[in-house]
């Protein structure tokens, strides 16, 4: 099956619920991210005051808010004059199943921060050091 016809009002209800869940998760993630950043900045300041080497970057991944993706979809559905909407498989995944192209990476990041786990960037490979070995 490549397409499906859905009732616009039912789809709107589903997308609004998905949007609200995403926004709530993002706000929790953002609050914890802010807490982790402040802790890291405090550590960096203490290290600098103690005369240790000065770090100039923080390797925490910033959570990203995709509420705008939901809002655009909601606005389009609200403005549609059709009572029935035809969705292809990708649109169905996004709007009904809440599986977006960004879900695999950003969804995990939001989830980790929301439960209080910091998410660090993967270290960059130093190609010059590898060549010397």
Secondary structure layout plus pairing:
Blueprint: E1 3-7, H1 8-49, H2 67-79, E2 84-88, H3 89-95, H4 103-114, H5 127-132
Helix pairs in contact: 1-2, 1-4
Record the strand order, biggest sheet.
Answer: 1-2
Strand content: 5-15%
Average pLDDT confidence is: 92
Give a quick account of the main beta sheet: strands, pairing sense, barrel closure.
2 strands, antiparallel
Helix content range of the residues, please? 55-70%
Pairing-aware structural class of the strands and helices? mainly alpha
Uncertain residue ranges: none
Tell me how many strands there are.
Answer: 2
Q: What is the ordering of alpha helices and beta strands?
A: EHHEHHH
Number of helices: 5
How many structural units, i.e. domains? 1
Shape: elongated
CA gyration radius, whole angstroms: 21 Å
Distance between the termini: 54 Å
Verbal overview:
The chain is mainly alpha-helical and 133 residues long. It has one domain (3-122). 60% of the residues lie in helices and 8% in strands. It has a two-stranded antiparallel ribbon with strand order 1-2. It is elongated and about 65 Å long. The termini are far apart.
